[in-house]
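Handout, section 4.2: multi-component inputs.
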Amino acid sequence: MDLTYFFELLLGGLTRGSIYALLALGYTMVYGIIQLINFAHGEIYMIGAFTALIVIGVLTFTGMNGIAIILIAIVVAMVFSTGYGFTMEKLAYKPLRRAPRLSALISAIGMSMFLQNYVLLAQTPDFLPFPNLLPKIARLEQAESLMNSSQFTILVTTAGVMIILTFLIKFTKIGKAMRATSQDKTMAMLSGININKVISFTFVVGSATAALGGVLISSHTGQINYYIGFIAGIKAFVAAVLGGIGSIPGAVLGSLVLGWTESFGTGYISSDYEDVFAFIFLIAILIFKPSGILGKTSAGDKV
Amino acid sequence: MSNVSTEIKPTSFLSFKELKKSLFTAVWFMILTLPIMVIKVNTIENTVEWHWNRMVFVGLLIFFGSWGWRYLLARREMGPRPRKAESERKRFNLTAILMERKQVRTPTIIILAVMVIVFPFISSMYQTNIMITALNYIILGLGLNIVIGLGGMLHLGYIAFYAVGAYSYALLNYHFGVSFWLALPIGAGLSAIFGILLAIPVLRLRGDYLAIVTLGFGEIVRIILENWNDFSFGPSGIANIPRPGLFGIDFSLPQVTTFIYFIMIGLVVFTIFLMIRLENSRLGRAWVAMREDEVASRAMGIDIRKNKLTAFSLGAVWAGMAGVVFASKTTFINPASFTIWESVMVLSIVVLGGMGSIIGIIIAALIMILLPEYLRAFSEFRMLLFGFLLVAMMVFRPGGLVPAKRKVYTFPQEEAGNE
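Output:
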C-alpha cells in the first residue's frame, strides 16, 4: 500500500472527525441531560453558518481586516445561535418534558423541518459561497496536501472546546448541577438545583459549539445552503452514539473513529457510499456494543 | 397547576401583564430573526439587501401568536378536566353519531361512496391525479400507522419500502416485462422482505436509537439506488414505466387515470377494512400492549420479537403496494422521490391525524396533500407549516386531529343488576 496515500487519508479522517466532534459535543451534552435526540441541533449549526455569512457580507463593506471580520462573525453567530437554541428548547421541548419520548422526538423533527424551511424561504435555496477568512499559517502552506490552515484551525479548536467543556462539566458548579440533573431530575430539584436553568444552559452551550462549528466548517468547505445541517447533524449523532452518548471525550473519540471510517472507506472502497459507511457502522455498534466505546451507563434503559 | 378550579378564559388574557409578555416575546423574536429574515447578502455580486418590512411582519405575527400559544399552554396546564369534557363532546358529535347510529351511518357511507365513484367523471384529469396522490398517501399513512400508531416504534425510513415497491415494478417490467398486476404482490412481498431485513438488527432498539437506525436504513436504500448505476440506472431514474392495463384493453390517458383512481380506491378500501380487522385482532392488541409497555407485555407472554417483525413487515407491505402504484402512475421514478423528507411527510400525516386513528389519518392525508395543491400561494410555506404543526400538535394535542379511541371493555352491569 502507498504510504503517502495512507497518511493523507489518516489526516483527512482526523479533520473530518474533528468536524463531527464540534457538533457531536453539543449533541452529547443535550442528550446526556434530557435524553432527547435534538434533531434540530444540525439546524442550529446551519443557522450559525448563515448568520456568520451575513455578518461577513455586511462587514466586508467596511473594509475591515479579514481576521477581525471572522472573529466578529463567529461571536455574532454564536450569540444568535444560542438565542435560537434557547428559544427552541422553551418552545418545543420544555412543554414535552413529561410527555412520552416519541412526542419529544417528533417535536424535534418538526423543529428541524421548520428551521430548514425558515432559512430556505428567508434566504435562498441555492448554495452560497462562503469566504475562507481563517488565518493562514505560513508553515503549513508547504504541506498543503497533508493539512491546510483551516484544517489545522478546526483541529485546534475542537481540542480546545473539548478541554473547556470537560473542565466546565467536571470542575464548575454549573457542571456539577448538569451532572446531577442528567442523573435524576427530581432528586436534583430536591437538592435545590433549578433544572430549567440547567437545561437552558446546556442548550446554550450546545448551540454555541454548534455555531462555532458551523463557521469553521463552512470556511473549510467553502459553501453553504439550508440543508447542510441535517446530514451533518445525523453524522454527529452517529459519532456521539459511537463514543458513548453523554460522555464528552467519548463524543470526540467517536467522531474520530467515524471520520477515519469514512475517510478510509471512501479512499479504499468507493467514494459514492460515504454515508452508507457511517450508518452501517452505527448499526453494527448498536448491535454489538450499545453503550458505545466510552459509555458507562447501562444500556438497558436506552436501547 | 395549583389553581385547578379556576376556569381559564381567553378574556383573562387581556390583562396588562399578558400584553407586556407578548410584547417582550415579539421583540425577542424580532431580534432573533434579525440577520436571517432581514439581511440578504449576495457574496458573488457583493450586494446586501435589507428587508425591514419582514421584521414588522415577524413582530406582529409573534405578538398575537404568543398570546394564543400561552393561552393554549395555560389551558393544557389546567389538566384533564376541560380536556375530558372536550373529548366527551367530540365523541358525541363525531364518532358516536357517525359510527354508532345506524340510521346516520348508512346514509353517510352511501353518500361518501357515491361521491367517491362520481369524482373522476365530474372533475378534470389534473384533479383526479392529485386525488390519486392523496390516496397514495392515505395508504402510506395507514401502513406507517401499523409501525408507529399501533407498535409505537418511530420509523423514519418508511419511504425506503415505498422505493422498493416502485423500483421492483420498474425493474421487473424493464427486464422481464412483468405486468402491473403481477408486480403488485411481488412489490409488496419484496417490501415485506426488506421490512424483515431492517427489523432483525433493530429488534433490541427502542425510541431514539430506533429512529436514527431506521433513518439510516432509508438513506442507505436511497444512496444505493442513486449510485448503483448498473442496477437502478442511478440518479437519472427509470422512464417509460407502463401504466396498468386490464385484460389487454387499450386505455386513453384520461381513462387510465380514472382506472388508476379506482385501483387506488379499491386499495384504500381494502386497507381500511384490513386495518379495522387488524386493530381488533390478537396481533393488533399485542402491538398496542407492546407500545404501552414493552417489559410488561413481555411478562404477559407476548412474543416481542415476533410482533416487531410482523409490524415492520406488514407496514412495509403497504408501502410496497403504494410504491408500485406510484411508479405506474408517474411512469418515471428516480431516487429523488424517496428522500427522508417523504418519510417525514408520511410521519406528519400519521401524527396530525392521530396515531392509531384510521379516520384521522385519512382526513390528515387529504388535508395535507389537497390543501397545498389548491392553495398555490400557500404551497411555498407547506413544509414550514408542517414543521410547525408537528411541534404544535405534540405540545397541544398529542392525540392528533381525531384521537384514536381506546378500547374500553365494560361489563354489562345493568343486566347483571337485573338478574
